[in-house]
Amino acid sequence: MNNFKLAQPQNIEQAASLLSDKKVFLMAGGTDLLDEIKNEIITPDVVVDLNTIPGLSYINSTDDGVHVGAMTRVSKLAGNQTIKTSYPVLHEAALSLASPQLRNVGTVGGNLCQRPRCWYYRDPQVECRKKGGSRCYASRGRNRYHAILGGGICHIVYPSDLAPALISLDAEATIATANGSRTVPLQEFYTLPRVDVQKENILKANEILKEVKIPPPKNEQKSTYVKLKERGTWDFALVSAAVCGIVSGKTFKDIKIVLGGVAPIPWRLEKAENLLKGNPVTDDVVKQAVKEALSDARPLNENVYKQDLAAIAVSRAVLSLV
Ligand SMILES: Cc1cc2nc3c(=O)[nH]c(=O)nc-3n(C[C@H](O)[C@H](O)[C@H](O)COP(=O)(O)OP(=O)(O)OC[C@H]3O[C@@H](n4cnc5c(N)ncnc54)[C@H](O)[C@@H]3O)c2cc1C
After folding, report:
1. Residues 258-300 pLDDT 10s
2. Which of 65, 214, 239, 269 shows its CA 20 to 30 Å from the CA of 126?
3. Is any atom of ligand 1 closer than 6 Å to the C-beta of 25?
4. Torsional class of 181: left (φ above 0), alpha (ψ -120 to 50), beta (otherwise)
């Protein structure tokens, strides 16, 4: 592990002003960042500790929705009564995430900005495209956990459980710089490898994710998160489905479906949403809608199974809401 300086700013503007260089990294809970440093995936000159900034950990309910500060620990989110009652998809996603120890330390901002778990990216011996090399080793290598959609030049999947849940709820992200802030729909926060293969989101070098805002729940809104994993204990999703809809009897007046574990970004299934809207749902109807929505999937040699898992995850989620 290389030596680095630790900066402990007192406010977010000061933190952002330290972020000019590629060798400067933000640290929230450190559960991902420190692994990256110890495994020499990154070699920082400076680590900027967000823990010294007061006021970045909060869950505030207001007229325009619930505001969640980036430094809010995942365990606080999972334990919050408003989140549990009004946004079950987010409560369930938070509870499904990692282990109690990791949820106690990991933060909402860190979860949304964590780096991918691809074993080629995480291997210090491998210089893949994401680390500036010229190849994606997953495309012809071991790829059972990799992307079936949106990959192309790099087949990572985005590993966060909170991201699909928050996108299904139409959450927005507030991004801070030294001079102010901007707000974007969380769905637009994530970017595909073809935009910049070394990044997973739109954050510029001097920007920090400050908060996410979730709009107030609508009448008859129901939501849930289904996560399919290889193991019964803590694990990343093979495939997950975040579903949020306006339900009337057996039909959805409106529905949003976001998959995790299938693409380098949380993946909206808009085609399936349109097929399901206004029609009574059954297992067959949902699975057929997902199949059609995934007709442009390009599975790799070891991960064809993810197409079936996606249909199962969405079907379980959708049917549990009617
Ligand atoms: C064993 C294990 C199992 C796990 N299982 C799951 C799982 O099932 N589901 C899941 O979703 N995750 C899982 N994770 C990932 C875990 O949730 C993340 O490590 C954690 O959420 C990151 O939060 P953190 O606060 O520790 O971030 P850090 O490690 O401090 O930071 C992570 C990254 O985000 C950047 N960053 C942090 N905060 C900000 C910010 N506010 N603005 C901009 N950039 C920022 C950092 O620079 C760094 O690159 C697992 C991790 C481990 C080690």
Report:
1. 999 999 999 999 999 999 999 999 999 999 999 999 999 999 9
2. 239
3. yes
4. beta
> Is the distance from the beta carbon of residue 307 to the nearest atom of ligand 1 less than 6 Å?
no
- Residue closest to 218 by CA, chosen among 259, 255, 260, 173: 255
Biggest distance spanned by C-alpha atoms of the chain: 60
According to DSSP, the β-strands at 46-49 and 5-7 are: parallel
What gap in Å lies between CA 158 and CA 189, rounded to an integer?
12
User: CB neighbours of 241 closer than 8 A, spacing ≥ 6?
Assistant: 164, 225, 226, 257, 258, 259, 260, 310, 313, 314, 316, 317
Q: What share of the chain is helix, strand, coil (3-state, %, to 5)?
A: 30, 25, 45
How far is ligand 1, taken at its centre, from the CA of residue 106, in Å? 6
Token duo for residue 209: 């994710």
Q: Ligand 1 pocket: which of 12, 13, 33 to mutate (most atoms <8 Å of CB)? A: 33
User: Residues 20-35: pLDDT tens digits?
Assistant: 777 999 999 999 999 9
Residue with tokens 């079907």: 315
